[in-house]
Amino acid sequence: MKIVLVVGARPNFMKIAPLIRAIEKYNANHQSLVTIHHVLVHTGQHYDYEMSQIFFKDLELPQPDIYLGAGSGTHAEQTGKIMIELEKVLFKERPHLVIVVGDVNSTLAGALAAVKLHIPVAHVEAGLRSYDRTMPEEINRLLTDAISDYLFTPSPDADENLRKEGIPEDKIFLVGDVMVDSLLYNKARAEKSDILERLGLVTSHQSPVTPYALLTLHRPSNVDEKESLLKIIAALSEISRRIRIVFPAHPRTQKRLKEFDILNNLPVTSLQLLITESLGYLDFLNLEMNAKFVMTDSGGIQEETTVLGIPCLTLRNTTERPITLTRGTNILVWNHTEKIVEEAFKILDGKGKTGNCPELWDGKTAERIVEILASSRYNC
Ligand code: UD1
User: Fold this and answer.
1) Whose Cα sits closest to atom 19 in ligand 1?
2) Which residue has a Cα nearest atom 20 of ligand 1?
3) Which of 87, 100, 133, 237 could form a disulfide with 267 if both were Cys (CB 3.0 to 4.6 A apart)?
4) Which atom of ligand 1 is nearest to the CA of 48?
């Protein structure tokens, strides 16, 4: 059985790594049966060292077998370029199945290129819905799910969403969250990162950590619109009176901060708001584990903080991961200055939200996926 695995953007890498490990484990345990051959295709949607290569190193991912070099562009350009290049690979490789993960442009492009060649598609992290169609990721999720043959979901709400859209029951598999596989597998390694020392947050590995909040921000709706960005910055400046903020900034955000000339006019000092380049997986996970709380507009970080039990303030008005609100440590605060400050201060006053971990977020999701695919291989 031959499987093409598609990755392209930062949040894909931690979802593919456990799948590759699970395929190799399956092969080792089933030597007399059919072997699963995997071909790893990197679309090149993300190409900077900090957005791509560092994750291969941190996650012990094998180098991609094929690199498509699609790069940046408008949504249509990026999706189109990936489809054109991937189609050539699929003609040549003729896989039995294509696996796509998450909700980025590479996910949709991979699924579309495959399904048009009548190659079955498995979508890992299926069924998530924010019900906000202005988000490019929501369009990617809806379309990818509509054309996939195996829909691997992280939580029961995702199954419900798919049923409402008329997806047949026999295509839906509740398997848990593959990102959590990566988190649990790498937690001990992340603890050894020296990022706290590098950022001056501890003087030595043994000394107490200077309290800090961790921030990530990259959604177009937050950073491409100056008004929205300024509302968030106003909250940060208030919060930074009480706690230091560490902000590894995505390239898009760095660009906008310069373009809007926000950096020169920041109302806080660089010590209170410590802006760094985007960080690798292990350094970032270490910062997450040691933070007093996290502020983010990312999808995956809402899940990671729920698993780690760290309070999370999500700088969005919707989430496709509602289980992190109902079960986990997540609160939606959007770009509302007062709400962000109010919730941050509650946490600092010891009244932060606590939660618990959803079922099947146990580190074994990728193994469940591979078992399902292997047992249904004659359908492929
Ligand atoms: C993409 C995903 C988003 C995900 C995010 C994580 C889509 C629609 N969006 O958004 O869901 O949360 O990745 O990072 O797929 N750039 C660089 N270096 C890089 C990559 C990008 O400088 O390695 C710059 C480019 O100039 C580009 C901008 O960042 O204009 C945005 O990159 P792009 O991949 O288009 O979208 P993201 O905002 O990263």
Assistant:
1) 46
2) 46
3) 237
4) 23
